[in-house]
Structure formats: C-alpha cells, structure tokens
Fold Nucleoside diphosphate kinase.
Amino acid sequence: MEQTFIMIKPDGVQRGLVGEIIGRFEKKGFSLKGLKLITVDRAFAEKHYADLSAKPFFNGLVEYIVSGPVVAMVWEGKGVVTTGRKIIGATNPLESAPGTIRGDYAIDIGRNVIHGSDAVESARKEIALWFPEGVAEWQSSLH
Ligand code: CMP
C-alpha cells in the first residue's frame, strides 16, 4: 500500500495545529503508520532538503526547520502521495486554495506549516530518513 511522509513544521506545532492536521488526514480515510515529535539538527535538516541546497532560501529553510520540534508522520492509503499534497495545498500559501491546510492556515511561503512528499520515490527516501526504525506493520480492521 502507498505511503507518504508528512511533517508538521515548527510553526504548525507552535500554533497548535497538530490535532487539526491529523484530523484532516484521518477523516479522509488514510491510516497513521508512524508518528513522532522530534527536534532535528542542521545536518539532518540539510539531508532532508538536500535537493534544494542550491536555492537562495536554503539556509533560511534549514534554520526554520531546526527552530523547534516538528511532528514527523507516515500516512498510508490509496493515492496518499498525490491526495496528501492536495490536502496540504500549493507550496505558496497565497496560492493554496481555501479548504487546504496551507490555504486555511498560512500566508508566508517561508512559514507554510507542513511538508508532504512530492512523489512515491521521495516518500520512500524520506520515510527511510525519518523512520530508520521502521513503521507500524498492523492493519486496522476498519480499512
Ligand atoms: P516544502 O513542501 O517543505 O518543500 C520545500 C520547502 O521550501 C517548501 O515547503 C517551503 O517551506 C520552502 N520554500 C520553497 N520556496 C521558497 C521560497 N521562495 N522562499 C522560502 N522558502 C521556500
């Protein structure tokens, strides 16, 4: 079954949006397979965003991600990578539709509340990086 990596960024945790965000994924019908509150260091954040290392905003992005605890999660379900990105909304919150997480809760591209893997292959890499211990194997009887 398809899995994706979702991270509630430090601003989302500090603003008390954790329950709201988890609720949106649960109510859609996806299954939570891994979850942890974790503060990462610079080297780890640089690894997660390695593809963006040449971007002018890279340093600021890394500083933002290490600025406080994040909620790292693995969600599973049919089409969860693409649909997860739809639930999250466009990267720039000013372009995210109302009803999406970023569309409802953010205005700044540098403080956009949440990250979601952009493809099945990047999800696989991100899950391996954030959950080297592995994730839940059990299957809920509701799904
Ligand atoms: P995310 O989905 O985590 O993927 C890459 C992140 O880089 C993105 O969300 C934003 O937080 C950040 N980002 C992308 N473009 C910009 C930008 N122009 N300025 C600042 N941050 C950006």
In short: The helical segments are 10-14, 18-28, 42-48, 58-65, 80-88, 101-105, 120-130. The first strand starts at residue 3 and ends at 8. The chain is about 40% helix and 15% strand.
